[in-house]
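TICKET #2291
ISSUE: user wants both folds in one file
ATTACHMENT 1:
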Amino acid sequence: MKPVTVYDIAREANVSVATVSRVLNNTAPVKASTREKINALIDKYQFSPNALARSLIKKETGMIGIILPDITNPFFPEVLAGLEQQARSNGYTFFLCDTGSNNRDIQEQYQRESQYLGILTEKQVDGIIMIGGRINLARCSKEMVREVAEVNKRLPVVLINGNLPGASLHRVAVDEKAGGDMAAQYLIDLGHREIAFIGGYKQMSNTIYRVQGFISAMERNGLAVDKRRIVYGGLSVDSGKRLMSELLGAGTPPTAVFCANDLTAIGAIKAAVSAGLRVPEDVSVVGFDDIPFAAHSIPELTTISLKCKEAGRTAADVLHKLITNKKVSKLTSLQPELIVRESAMPPSR
C-alpha cells in the first residue's frame, strides 16, 4: 500500500497543503470544522509526516552541519556534547564533518572543508557551525574567506573560537588572550619568574592570542620575556614531550611552563618526569582547554577552561535564532576560567 502523504491529506480534505501544515504544526488559526476534518483524516490513515514532508512544508530540514578538524582531539567532543544537547532541545539533528587535520597535508584539510561546505549546502541543512581549521588561521586566503561568505548568503554560518575577517559572520568566542594572561598571572602569583610557553603554531590565531596574554601578564609584572622560552611546534602529547625535552636541554630550565593546550601539557609532564624532574616540585606545568583528561592526569592538571560545553550550547542557540530569523549580536563572548589542580606550586628554587 502506498504511504499517505501530506498532499493526499490536503487533496481529500479539499484544502491546501499549507492548511494541513498549520494543523500539524499548530502555527496559525484554522476554522474548527476544517481542523476537525483534517484531524479525522490524520487519524484514519494514522498519518505522521516524515522529515522530507516537513522540509517541503516548512522550508526547513531540521538538520544542521558541523565542520571540525579532528574528532580525535578531546577538545572537540566536549564542544559537541554541549552543542548536541542544545541543538536537540531546539529540534535539530546534525551532520558531523571531520576534515582530519592529523593528515600531513594541511591543504587537504582546507580542501575537505570546501567539499563539506558544498555537500552541506546541497543537503539543504538549515545552518552550519565551524570549529577550527581555516577559521583559526591568522591570515586566511581571500578565496577561502569568500567561500564561507558565499555559503552564509544562502544559510547562516556560526563560528566557534575563530574568525574570518571580512566575511561578517556570527561568532561565539572565548577570550583566549584573557586566558593566556590568567595562566601566566597565576604562575607569577605563585612566585615564578622564569616561565616558558610551549606548543601551538605561529600561524594560528588561537596560539597568537594565548601568547599575547602570556606576554601581557609578564610585562605588566615587570618580568622580562625571553623569546627563546617561547617555543612553537604542535598541539599533541608527542609535541609536548618533544618541546619540553628541547626546553630542558637548552641550559637553565624554567621553573614553570605554560602550554598551548592540555595535550601539550600532558606531554610536557611526561618529558619532565623522564628527565628526572618532579611536577610540580621541580617544575610547574599549566595547560589550556580543560579537556576531561586534565582532571585525570598525574598530577592532575591546572589549566584554563575554555568552557567547551557552554561554547557548544551557545553556538547551537545562536544558530537556532538565526534560522528562525531572530536578531543576534555578531559576537557572543565567553570568559575563560582558571581551574586549579595539582600541577603547579611555588618554585622550590
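ATTACHMENT 2:
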Amino acid sequence: MLAGEATLRRNLVERVPQLGHIDEVSRTPMPGLYEIRVGTDIFYSDADGNFLLEGTLIDTRTKKNLTEARQDKLLAVDFSTLPVKDAFTVVRGNGQRKVAIFEDPNCGYCKRMERDIQRVDNVTIHVFLYPILGPDSAVKSRQIWCAADKGRIWVDWMARDKALPSAGGCDTSVLERNIALGRRHRISGTPTLILSDGSRVPGAVTAAQFEKLLAQGK
C-alpha cells in the first residue's frame, strides 16, 4: 500500500460515496497526482483526496494518452478464456490468425465490415452473436444459430443480403450467455473485435485495417 493511501481512500469514500468501491490507488507520472481505479473507470486525485478529477491525462512529451492506454489494459480480454463454444467459427485458408468478433445481425456497420473482410485469407474468426439492437436482432440471431451451417448462413446474410432460413428448433440460450459475456467485458456496441493478444477494437474496420490488426494480435 502506498504511503498515505488509507487516508486518501477514507476521504474519498466519505466525501464521494457515489464513487463506490475503490479497487486500486496508484501513482501517475505526474508528481502529486494519483490514479483512482473503480472497476475499469479511471479518476485522479491529489494525495489527500481533497480534489477528484475525471478526464484524460496526456503526456505532452510523448503525446501519449495515459488514460486511454491504462483503460486498454483494463479492458483487455484473455483470448484463451473466451467461450468459443458459444460462437460459430469461420475459417479461411490456413486459419492461423485468430480473432473474435461480437456482432449483431442488424448492425449496418457489421454488414459493411463483413463484406470487406471476405477478402482476408488465412484467418479463423469466432463470431459471437450479440443481439443488442432490438427484438428483431434476437429473432435473426436465433435463425442463424439454429442453422446447420451457421458460418455460410451468416456470410450469406451479412455480405450477400440473402434471406435467412426459418428458425429451427434448437437451444438458443447461447444468446443470453453472449449478452452476459459482452456486458461483463463492457462491450457496448457492434462490431467489437477481440484480437488474440487480448486487445479490443470497437467499430467496423476495412480489409486493410483488419490485416494490420491481425498482424498486431499475432
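RESOLUTION: both attachments delivered.
EXTRA DETAIL ON ATTACHMENT 2: The helical segments are 5-15, 66-75, 108-117, 135-145, 150-160, 173-184, 207-217.
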